[in-house]
Amino acid sequence: MSLPLLSRFPRLLACALVVGLAAISSAATSRPPNIVILLADDQGWGDLGATGNTQLRTPSIDSLARDGATLDRFYVCPVCSPTRAEMLTGRYHPRGGVRGTSAGQERLNLDERTLPEAFKAAGYATGAFGKWHNGSQWPYHPNARGIDEYYGFTSGHWGEYFNPPLEHNGQRVRGKGFLADDITSHAIAFIEKNQQQPFFCYIPYNIPHSPFAVPDEFWQRFKSKPITQRGVEGSEENLEITRCVLAMTENLDYNVGRVLRRLDELKLADNTIVIYFSDNGPNTFRWNGGMKGKKATTDEGGVRVPFFIRWPGRIKPASTVREIAGAIDLLPTLTTLAGISRVGTKPLDGKDISPLLFGGGGAWPDRMIFSHQNGNVSVRNTGYRLDSRGSLYDMVADPGQQRDIAAERPEVAARLSQAVTAWRKDVLGSTDEAPAAAGPAKGKNKAKAAKIGGLPPDDRPYPVGYTEFPMSPLPARDGLPHGGIQRSASAPNSSYFVNWSKADDSITWDIEVHTTGNYDVAIDYTCPLPDAGSTIELSFNGQKLAGKVTPGWDPPLYTNQDTIPRPAAESKMKEFHLLNLGTMRLDKGRGLLTLRAPQIVGKTVMDMRQVTLTLRK
């Protein structure tokens, strides 16, 4: 390794103390390790062959367990964006302002420093391909959080899995084929481009998250297959969805295999740390090793996920780490393994678990990992879980949480209960028990300030107008409807606004303009041909821009994308047309961006998916 490169990685010697003399020799003669993080979306612990599922084939993912280490008790959050925030920062998600999965609640505070920022500062090429889910507008965007190359979607739930609308470094693009396949192709291209330098490649997949859709060659293997391993909930399991999830998981394994094979072909595998895990428990009731709970719960089944890490020649093949660990541990652990420094100075909640990966570290102290969802908090230590209702379970003797032993072990219950109270005060700023999650209030964007899940009010506007990233998307999920306007479904992610028929209807976004200037305004819309021609007006702090909704554009809803029909809570998608409304001057400052229709010529104004403001240079 050259002296200039060595000076950029001052922790290599410290890391070598952990990995032993063999690692010292290797580190002295090779470049720092590449990092590949493969993140499944809504995949349960029991959805893989390596964890005991006999109904599917996952040889590529299973190979990571065979060739590396399994973290047997690895914990994430009950839902998607909080897990991503904890992985990125090494800190519990409420500390970084992440309190939900949509409508702005998924954004990671701008004063938090991230894992890719650390690798970028150390000279790595950094790329992310897939579902970001921690903010869409700059400077929440991945390109502002340490990612050089980004391709995918910044939302959480995405409604289109075949040839979907995506973005590439802030530019609109159209994906090719099945989304998971497309994400993988771009990740592999990034690896190929940067094979001569250290790289950090983050691949957050979108499956097996709903909508339940998969290429037909994968579905045909499962469409008539009996389901022999059942979830403990029995009749609540939808067997058709289970079949589709298994098919989607086999597609995921196919794509993981593509990445692993390319690393082998480029002779990069031996110097690449590969991690595979999921962001929360299973999104439906299905076999999960007998654990209690699923996605969105703080029970074991909602937060324990598969985790495999491979580093040939460093981490012993087929090894198992029994101590508990979690997403909060990835930042301190990966920076140590790579011999680089973290960026930022905020205290971490996670621990460097690299000694456990190498079979060392001596007696590992017991610890507690807390799980939070909408004010519900449970805590796990090595032997016990105290659930959000105060019930205590022996997780060694009773991994399915069947028998509450709080009365039998009052000292353990009291100690864990006190820890939860202290955690609430420290992380949530309150010792209150779980309140109901607050949804958007009617009428004002200040509704975002409502107390959500025990967290303080959220009053963050959506930022607009940075010269280094001129495009500012304002999707429907971030806006509020007024009057008769409604969302296309109850889930804000990947939704659009419908039922716009009156002059006093409007849509608002609470924005803050960073740069005074002229902005090109574009709107993603559909409109029945007979209704085309309504006048719409966009206004902000006294400034206005008007135009006509024309031409008419009324495509049918997609009917051939889903393998399993999606529920009413998820929007049925269609192809939106781009309406270039014109150029509008916006002055720096905060206010409500308001879209209304003073003149309506037909039964409806339009269906609207997104307003995009692009700062002119």
Question: Any overview of this molecule?
Answer:
By secondary structure, the chain is α+β, with helices and mostly antiparallel strands. The protein folds into 3 domains: 3-365, Alkaline Phosphatase, subunit A (3-Layer(aba) Sandwich), CATH 3.40.720.10; 371-428, no CATH class; 461-615, Jelly Rolls (Sandwich), CATH 2.60.120. The protein contains 13 helices and 27 strands. The strands form 5 sheets. Strands 1, 2, 3, 4, 5, 6, 7, 8, 9, 10 and 11 form an 11-stranded mixed sheet that branches. β12 and β13 (376-380) form a beta hairpin. The protein is globular and about 70 Å long. Mean pLDDT is 92; it is low at 1-29 and 435-451.
List keywords for this structure.
Alkaline Phosphatase, subunit A, globular, alpha+beta, 617 residues, Jelly Rolls, disordered N terminus, six-stranded mixed β-sheet, 13 helices
